[in-house]
Amino acid sequence: ETYCFAGGATEFCEFLAPDPPIMDTLRITGSEMFTETVPLLDDSGHMTVSDVERQLDVDIALRWGTGYDTTVRSFVNIIATPKGGTHLAGFERALVRTFGEVARAQKMLKVNEEALVKEDVLEGLTAVVTVRLAEPQFEGQTKEVLGTAAASRIVARVVERELRSFLTATRRADKASARVVLDKVVAAARVRVTARQHKEHQRRKNAL
Fold this sequence. Notes:
5-stranded mixed sheet, globular, two-stranded antiparallel ribbon, alpha+beta, 42% helix
């Protein structure tokens, strides 16, 4: 079988999605430089430690659907990283922080309500997270986990910037789409809190 995704990460994301969408697939891209300290051979053939400037490109496609399952695929230079790594950690951290701040700012989360957690934001999410960089550092021999530390903060900054722009859009169509996603995430948080409170109540009742 031959697979071809002419739309790149966007089309791949839509192909992976297990449920109908509640928004159009959002494409997040960006690029930043970072400095990495690496051992290099000098003219004499000796290994010396030097600072090298590298570029890291971020390309992410994501959308939320009507379901509750999470489907996330991550890649480094088109190498699949099924166990994630620093790029995925930065992506998830940025999602939680951005949704939390926007939901508070728009008064969708009340002051006395609990903060959002990763599970709330990932519910119904399908995403393809890709980074490109020279000489990525992997953990272990299987190259299943990216270890490059800079990837976490760069991906987080790019995602926060672009996602905040989407969630706070003023154009009518974008604003309506963002509201639907925010409603879904906040509802997931409230269901989680209610379920936990119910469980704690049942435990106290059983103890008594």
